[in-house]
């Protein structure tokens, strides 16, 4: 993903707006402060004194930020500021909505915040699935396999099995050491996971996620899951917001989006999340979009990391 660094004055105006959102409920929460500091460090490349920043009105912000991508990104960042303390308020919702209306941008991210504030969790889940990486992969799977693909995915979600599909993945045990196929099998074994087609295994369209774990070297704790999802979001060639919202919902707000991912609360470390996101933006291949791991299971992991420009973790 090509993520331009905003000009200093644009960044400063955006930080003022995010702080205005954070203060809407009367408290500048530690997690909100941490998120803004991490945005400065990893995304904005600024080092401003947050305590010295004054609130900003929607009109002043709109005058300071030109039309285009920076406005879209700011609204999405404001939603994350409102959610990071896990207690998004109607006051914060109103402030974010005011900024989005002044910007005259797509208000879909604000609607996600509204759903979180007012506990409209069914529509929130459906929208995150539909607009994020899960929805994109499922659409591709159904286009490729049609009704059979729908049946396979539904069977996996319901806990059913497919011996033929499982056998296909078990065959990866015979792949050469050092290959992605061999490393994927080791990842499944060491974490006591299941292959697609086995009881408890993921739907096949989502197996790429485990392969991203392998290539990007992320573990499987809730904290590491946040990072691998943020990495995926950064690598995407489409709007990363709803993929990041998956991480917020599943591992910070305790709202189950995927039954196979595990649910937890307050597991987002803003600095770790944004570091992983920016690492993902350096990738030259979007693994969430059209990548089929079967095309590369035979290839060495190191070769794929170089080709996809997956830089080492720091």
Produce a short descriptive summary.
With 314 residues, the chain is mostly helical.
Topology of this protein?
Layout: H1 8-22, H2 30-44, H3 58-64, H4 69-84, H5 90-103, H6 108-117, H7 121-131, H8 133-157, H9 163-170, H10 180-190, H11 207-216, H12 222-235, H13 241-251, H14 270-281, H15 301-308
Helix pairs in contact: 1-2, 1-4, 1-5, 2-14, 3-5, 4-5, 4-6, 5-6, 7-8, 7-13, 10-11, 11-12, 12-13, 12-14
Query: So what's the overall shape?
Result: globular
**Given the structure, what is the number of helices?**
15
- Considering DSSP H and I runs of 4 or more, what fraction of the residues is helical? 55-70%
Q: If you average the pLDDT, what whole number results? A: 93
Instruction: Work out the number of β strands.
Output: 0
Instruction: Return the domain count.
Output: 2
Reading the helices and strands in chain order gives: HHHHHHHHHHHHHHH
Structural class: mainly alpha
Strand content: under 5%
Give me the Rg, rounded.
Answer: 20 Å
Low-confidence stretches: none
The separation of the N and C termini measures 20 Å
Main beta sheet: none
